[in-house]
Amino acid sequence: xxxxxxxxxxIFRRLFRRETEDTxxxxxALAVEDGPEKAEELRTAEPQGSPFGKETPEDAEEVVxxxxxxxxxxxxxxxxxxxxxxxxxxxxxxxxxxxxEILVTAxxxxxxxxxxxxxxxxxxxxxxLDDSEAILRHLxxxxxxxxxxxxxxxxxxxxxxxxxxxVVGVNGSGKTxxxxxxxxxxxxxxxxxxxxxxxxFRAAAVEQMEIWAQxxxxxxxxxxxxxxxSSVAYEAVEQALSDGSDLVLVDTAGRLHTRVPLMEQLxxxxxxxxxxxxxxxxxxxxxxxxxxxxxxxxxxxxxNEAIPVxxxxxxxxDGTSKGGVLVGISNELKIPVRxxxxxxxxxxxxxxxxxxxxxxxxxxxxxxxxx
Length: 371
Prior knowledge:
Elements: H1 3-31, H2 36-44, H3 59-69, H4 71-85, H5 93-105, H6 110-125, H7 132-148, E1 163-168, H8 175-188, E2 193-197, H9 205-216, E3 219-221, H10 229-243, E4 247-251, H11 260-276, E5 283-289, H12 295-306, E6 311-315, H13 325-333, E7 337-341, E8 349-351, H14 354-361
Parallel strand pairs: 1-4, 1-5, 2-3, 2-4, 5-6, 6-7
Antiparallel strand pairs: 7-8
Helix pairs in contact: 2-9, 3-14, 4-5, 5-6, 6-13, 8-9, 10-11, 12-13
């Protein structure tokens, strides 16, 4: 066995180990259903002030906030690139091999990693990139290009009829909290918002939705315990049509994405919404926990195959070093990214901006200057 082959196999063994760990962590989180204690925690928690916190009109301030949220991701992926490339005047075979390892074992996904690597290698071969700083700048540009293709904040267009958003995702992804943050944002913008508690089988899920609705100041439609989720969604749209609601946010069950019954249930909800209001749901928003790493790409693929996903909200970026998964999801699936979550406060769910995200991700690198 050649030294190069052995090294590459070593890379993939480490990658496989990481993917396995990601899956186990995700399944452990999903195996624990939220019980009454979660609802009690929400009920007794202190309100967080105004729905979206302090306004930050300056773009620079948005980047500063993102920098804090992406600190763990930046300290891994980008720091490794800096340590490898900066100060090197010549890109030799050893550096090229190390660059491959950094990209492949990063949480941007194997497919995207090799696409980036091939692009860089081709330009180095043509002598278009002749030093390490040029390679870093080029990688930054490639990442920005990928993310700009999917930059698409959610636009609510009611036109006299309710705009229906069906929110999907596995348990533990931050789905219910994301719904509350979106509701708070549009309530503050003067829209009438209605929540549908269609996750009828998870313990305390309906109660959690009621607590959030009370805090945000909007109504919630719920069914009896173990009620058919599609019937709750139907009643919510029916009420929205009668009371003039502008926006309906439908929560759904979120057990393991590999379970066929869950996907069939989501398909049924979707068909029921369409039956009640032609064109609904106008948005199917997939909420993904970024700490799942490359397993998040599998989640997004599975959901998108079952029910066409029209938008993504990536949450918990502040608590993980795996925020680079957004690049892989964007490159492989081309699904519009609506929101990124960088904290627990209401204002920490932000409409996605590709330029700000990349500036924050590469902050501290010699490409953009030291923080």
